[in-house]
Amino acid sequence: MEIVLIGPGDGGKVRAAGHLFDGPPQDDAVERFLADDRHHLFVAYEEELPVGFVSGVELTHPDKGTEMLLYELAVDEAHRRQGIGRALVQRLAAHAHERGCYGMFVLTEDGNDAALATYAVDAPVREDGIVMLTWEPPAGANMSKPSGADDAPEEPHPEHRREDEADDRDEVDAE
Question: pTM of the prediction?
Fold first, then answer.
């Protein structure tokens, strides 16, 4: 097995591994992902066939530094239970260390026994009581366009407007 770091210009390799993803890779998303040096994708190959991948995203916070989020891990069903998932996780962890990340974390479901077994091999600390909440885009929002892609200037949040910019949208009806 060979594990390869996929980078800019490797969109074809991502599409060749498309059967491993939840859905078909989207060309614009592939290019954006690969162009960002904080996004990482390792693909495992058996005889030049993609059999697994792990993706990670570096997250930086002003008071914490940078850590790696293990975003997704997948191994082709026919190649599971051969240590590929563990090898991919270990390669991403080593890459995170090489990049100066202070740690790595992953979120998964309590009932995902295969993932929990894969991650448990390296004895990470399990954080009990963690709750994950997700937000959906507002109705009618065009989520295919990156933020700021419109020609029209974005309205500032009311709290971020200067006083002289305040308008009737900030007033509350007292009735």
Answer: 0.77
Sequence-ordered list of residues with C-beta below 8 angstroms from that of 46, at least 6 positions apart, any chain:
1, 79
List the CATH number of the domain containing 46. 3.40.630.30
- Tokens 């991502």, residue located: 14
Burial track 17-54 (b if 16+ CB lie within 10 A, e otherwise): beebeeeebeeeebeebbeeeebbbbbbbeeeebbbbb
Instruction: Convert the pLDDT of each residue in 71-119 to its tens digit.
Output: 999 999 999 999 999 999 999 999 999 999 999 999 988 888 888 888 8
Q: Is 140 helix (H, G, I), strand (E, B) or coil?
A: coil
Residue 62 belongs to what domain range?
Answer: 2-134
- Number of domains the chain is built from: 1
10 part of a folded domain? yes
